[in-house]
Specification:
381 residues, alpha/beta, TIM Barrel, 2 domains, seven-stranded mixed beta sheet, 13 helices, 13 strands, globular, binds iron/sulfur cluster
């Protein structure tokens, strides 16, 4: 079994580089009932990935899958005893053995109003049920969308529906609960042009879900709001954890990559985080932070320290290109990302921020970042 330190290094490399899927293998796997595809091609969260588990039976990684051998030196090879060999072409050796997290059976079932359940909510990692409750975003409408975002692509492809109802979601939760170790729920949304920026879309839904499943922790994700009362309303509805996602720490890059969302200043984010920490409590507030844009190390480190000092968990992930999109980014350097993870967990230790105590959502799932494993290593957990 790999040691945690090795797992962190390998997970970081896989997050950055992904693996190549040879067409030959896809066909073979499909004939064996293993449904490989290029991961999700739209939606919220890092795209184009499939979930695998390391041999510690604990660490999950959301691996980008490519159909182009030029993208990466890793190739998905033979399956043996439930583990796939990831072959490193540059070293002519096996890089890792990973277990594929199987799709749940409910993906083929339909809700009572006739919608395929996989269009309502998907399992992320192994125990996080995740859905985009509203699949549109005002920045797509006015031509100022974040360049890394695929929220409306999955809608255009017919992989999902525009807006989910509480009833549909409750049916899918029941289906997921009946067959898997589903433990927490993640709700996300596109930003709306209303003053609440979409926060109010969650409140009734969270209340209804909590009424049915009081023990399931719920995570929601929002853009920072001008009026902090919306954060209070989300907590009052029953939300357990919140992600207020600034996405990029370097302001000059944020303006280019997120032309619409960056109109909300860093200072507004800071106010939101401080308020959310007061009402959601310690370790229950996070922010997605993408790296790999060639950002200034100094600005990145300074801002990172500022937000960790506030008590926010930075959920750091490498930026990932969207399949079939014009948005191209160089592959995030795994060694640089590893250094960032190490630096971040030292800051978390220093300021007493513990991602292992987070109750729901991306921080608890952890498939898209190695931040929790790096924290486990430094804490001896
Ligand atoms: S960390 Fe988990 S829940 Fe969050 S986007 Fe990645 S896979 Fe989904």
């Amino acid at each position: 079994m790999l040691k945690l330190k090795e797992i962190i290094g390998k997970k970081t490399e896989l997050l950055c580089k992904g693996v190549n899927l040879d067409d030959r293998f896809i066909e073979t796997y499909r004939s064996e009932g293993i449904p490989f595809e290029e991961g999700r091609k739209g939606g919220a969260g890092p795209l184009g990935g499939q979930y695998f588990e390391f041999d510690d039976n604990k660490t999950i990684v959301n691996v980008p899958l490519w159909h182009n051998s030029k993208e990466t030196n890793f190739v998905l090879k033979n399956e043996k005893d439930g583990y796939f060999e990831i072959f490193d072409k540059s070293k002519n050796s096996i890089f890792a053995n990973l277990k594929l997290v199987p799709y749940p059976n409910y993906y083929n079932r339909s809700t009572t109003d006739g919608i395929l359940m996989k269009k309502i909510a998907l399992v992320h990692g192994i125990e996080c049920l995740a859905t985009t409750i509203y699949q549109r975003c005002c920045y797509w409408e006015n031509g100022s969308k974040c360049q890394f975002c695929g929220i409306e692509l999955s809608l255009a492809r017919g992989d999902t529906i525009e807006e989910k109802t509480s009833k549909q979601l409750i049916e899918v939760i029941n289906a997921a609960k009946s067959e898997r170790k589903f433990k927490h729920l993640l709700l996300t949304t596109g930003t709306t042009s209303s003053i609440d920026k979409g926060a109010l879309k969650y409140t009734d839904m969270v209340k209804e879900i909590k009424k049915e499943f009081p023990d399931i922790p719920i995570h929601i994700q929002i853009e920072a709001v001008e009026n902090l009362k919306y954060i209070d309303m989300l907590k009052e509805a029953g939300t357990d954890t919140i992600g207020i996602h600034i996405e990029i720490l370097d302001d000059s890059i944020r303006k280019v990559i997120c032309p619409g969302k960056s109109r909300t200043s860093y200072e507004v984010y800071e106010k939101n985080w401080i308020h959310a920490l007061e009402i959601f409590g310690k370790n229950q507030v996070d922010s997605f932070i993408l790296t790999g844009f060639g950002e200034s190390t100094e600005e990145f480190s300074n801002k990172l320290e500022k937000i960790v000092k506030l008590g926010v968990i930075p959920f750091i992930t490498p930026v990932r290109p969207i399949p079939q999109s014009k948005f191209k980014v160089p592959i995030c350097n795994p060694l640089m990302l590893l250094t960032i993870f190490e630096h971040t967990v030292k800051l978390m230790k220093k300021f007493n921020v513990n991602p292992l105590k987070n109750k729901a959502g991306c921080v608890r799932c952890g498939a898209c970042s190695a931040i929790t494993e790096a924290y486990r290593l430094i804490s001896g957990n």
